[in-house]
Design brief:
By secondary structure, the protein is of the alpha/beta class. The chain has nine helices and twelve strands. It is 32% helix and 28% strand.
Length: 259
């Protein structure tokens, strides 16, 4: 469905990520993990066409995204960054309505079909009870759900999430990731996200891609590749890894930092 071909990505003349390739199948949840500064968010921006690569490209259903119009891409792929802002007086429902913009002409209002899709997105993210509240009058977890609802209103095939649990407490982190997994399973929504927490990456991902210093260190099912050696090499931390009786459902417990 989506293929990244030999990316070289950076800012100005500084290369951040090099020789980066990946393939994501329809309906997969793929999580990019790695230390701070390893290039995770840079890769996601380039996949979402927010940053042009120095070399390489992204193919969406066999077509280079750089040969596609912005609206055409927005109908296929939605991207949420770490930091999203809305006017203080904007209601939750109004924000979600902006997700229909890729399907509208300039200054064209929402029609009945658009309003129906907005209602659908509100229901899917359990926001009906606060749809008329201002974005600044709801909790951090509710705001994040509102942004995800806006992305859903685009009716994309692929959802890109850059650290969707940043600044949220553990309760809201679980709520957001449970929602993402539910949308993935019920809608066959393909998800590519960046996470820091190894336990969350292992629990919610079909595959993880480990990156360090702009280079891929491993790709595969969490239970197959997230071992003590890889984690020590990438994070410089010795880790106890617990597994259930089937060898799945990993739990990571740090032991000590390595020099």
């Amino acid at each position: 469905m989506l293929r990244v071909n030999e990316f070289k990505v950076g800012y100005d003349n500084k290369v951040v990520v090099k020789d980066f390739s990946m393939h994501v199948k329809k309906g997969e949840v793929v999580t990019i993990i790695g230390p701070n500064g390893s290039g995770k968010s840079t890769v996601l921006k380039a996949i979402g066409r927010l940053l042009k690569p120095m070399d390489g490209t992204v193919y969406l259903d066999g077509k280079s995204i750089w040969n596609m119009k912005g609206k055409e891409i927005a109908k296929e792929m939605a991207c949420l960054s770490q930091h999203n802002f809305a006017p203080e007086d904007m209601s939750v429902k109004k924000l979600i309505g902006f997700g229909r913009n890729p399907h509208k002409n300039w200054l064209e209002g929402l029609n009945k079909e658009d309003e129906s899709i907005v209602e659908w997105a509100i229901e899917k993210t359990n926001l009906k009870h606060i749809e008329d509240k201002g974005m600044m009058n709801i909790s951090g977890g509710e705001r994040q759900r509102a942004w995800i609802a806006m992305a859903l209103a685009q009716k994309p095939k692929i959802l890109l999430l850059d650290e969707p649990t940043t600044y949220l407490d553990i309760n809201n982190q679980i709520e957001i990731l449970d929602l993402v997994k539910e949308l993935n399973e019920k809608l066959q929504l393909t998800v590519i996200m960046v996470l820091h927490d190894l336990n969350q990456a292992a629990k919610y991902s079909d595959r993880v891609l480990v990156i360090k210093d702009g280079n891929i260190k491993g790709v595969g099912k969490p239970e197959n590749i997230l071992n003590e050696k890889l984690i020590k090499d990438v994070y410089k931390v010795e880790m106890n890894i617990l597994r259930n009786q089937f060898g799945e459902k990993l739990v990571f417990i740090p032991k000590q930092i390595c020099n």
